[in-house]
Design goal:
This protein is mostly helical. The chain is 66% helix and 2% strand. It is built from 18 helices and two strands. Strands 1-2 form a two-stranded antiparallel sheet. The chain is globular, with a radius of gyration of 21 Å.
Length: 403
């Protein structure tokens, strides 16, 4: 009982601190919420555009629901504060599922890791749409075995808000024995979303977010962009940073950048498919959910990050869900990767919002901070892939009988 009390006290204090971080430094960490999300909500309530329905959008259509939910309270409640309270409420619900009665050491360690991760990443981890998906992903993953329908539904809802939880759904389809329940829950949610958008007349914009992502350039925080940042610091002709007004983001330019942009999407697809094949092979040979799901889920999520052309700081929140589940299941094996994850999140907060301006002017120390963060991501990815390859199985590979 005492352990559970302390972890809940820490939960309240850490969420209060992170909400406060959204209001300091000119609201740099919460700019997207206070300006962009509030504007999207205001347009819709004024009878204007509905992103993802009446116009193409960079996010799936369900992403507009939390934006509108917080907007319904504005201006009675400050929009940024309302967003922080919504995220805190969702986190609390998933945190309660994780902690339970506080008797499991693995779940308690996972709970402390989650709190450390929230504090390490700071305001950018809370004041983005990704923060809505993390508690859904955590609760959904924890329920995959006992309540696979509910777990699948939560992961599918999260996927229709931000695409990344699709990695967890894919891992679940492979690792969970009750696959029909996983597929059925995800299909039901997808059907509801598709029908709702079609009835609203948004069929032409339903999958607009897919084309938008594939056509993007290399954002400066993406791991692959580290090469171009170092080239720019070294003064190589053509290597530079520029601002994309349409996407409201900074991207890199340099030698053969168009070729790299064209290759990144197929490379990402090939690697993700290869990881899924490894997972499916392990499952075919009898690997248990406990052994297979954590490394497979983490590998697929890290693949999304390491091979992505974007790499925004809030993407690091994606690491939280698979590591929380992994620690809850196998705390000893996943303790060091968990600590490495926290270090990655600390560096990410230093990068944004504190050192971001220095990166934009190519200050060498700031650029190297970003490069080191990206190298640690690659190290974590390699560790997880090796762990996936070593997942123990129960059945030997069938041998062909010689004639």
């Amino acid at each position: 009982m005492l352990r559970r009390t302390w972890v809940w006290i820490a939960f309240a204090l850490i969420h209060a601190v992170v909400i406060w971080l959204g209001f300091v430094d000119g609201r740099g960490a919460s700019w997207d919420v206070s300006e962009l999300y509030r504007w999207w909500a205001g347009r819709t309530f004024a009878g204007g555009a509905i992103p993802g329905v009446t116009e193409d959008w960079i996010y799936p259509p369900l992403a507009h629901l939390p934006i509108l939910l917080v907007g319904a309270l504005y201006p009675a409640v400050d929009y940024t504060l309302g967003w922080g309270l919504l995220v805190t409420g969702l986190d609390a619900a998933a945190f309660a599922v994780l902690v339970g009665r506080g008797r499991s050491r693995g779940r308690m360690l996972a709970a402390w890791f989650w709190l450390a991760a929230i504090l390490a990443l700071g305001g950018v981890g809370m004041f983005r749409l990704d923060a809505i998906t993390v508690p859904l992903a955590v609760a959904g993953s924890l329920w995959l075995v006992g309540r696979p329908w509910l777990g699948s539904v939560l992961l599918a809802v999260a996927t229709w808000i931000k695409v990344w939880p699709a990695a967890l759904l894919a891992a679940a389809v492979i690792a969970v024995h009750r696959r029909l329940a996983i597929v059925g829950g995800a299909a039901a949610v997808s059907a509801v979303v598709v029908v709702a958008v079609l009835l609203a007349g948004g069929g032409a914009h339903l999958l607009g977010f897919v084309g938008d992502q594939t056509s993007r350039g290399l954002q400066i925080e993406a791991p692959v962009s580290s090469v171009y940042l170092l080239l720019a610091v070294a003064g190589v002709p053509g290597a530079s940073i520029f601002y994309d007004e349409d996407l409201i983001t900074f991207q890199v330019n340099g030698p053969a950048v168009d070729t790299v942009i064209a290759l990144m999407t197929p490379v990402l697809a090939i690697v993700m498919l290869a990881l899924a094949v490894i997972g499916a092979f392990k499952a075919w040979r009898g690997a248990s959910f406990v052994a297979l799901f954590p490394p497979l889920a983490a590998a697929l999520v890290l693949g999304f990050i390491v091979l992505n052309k974007v790499g925004s700081p809030q993407y690091m929140t994606w690491l939280i869900a698979p590591v929380v589940v992994a620690l809850a299941i196998d705390r000893r094996r996943w303790l060091r990767p968990g600590l490495l994850t926290v270090a990655i999140l600390v560096l990410t907060q230093l990068i944004f919002p504190f050192w971001y301006d220095w990166i934009l002017v190519l200050t060498p120390s700031a650029v190297w901070l970003l490069v080191v963060r990206n190298l640690l991501l690659v190290v974590l990815f390699v560790w997880v892939v090796v762990r996936l390859a070593r997942v123990p199985v129960r059945r030997p590979v069938p041998r062909r009988v010689s004639e």
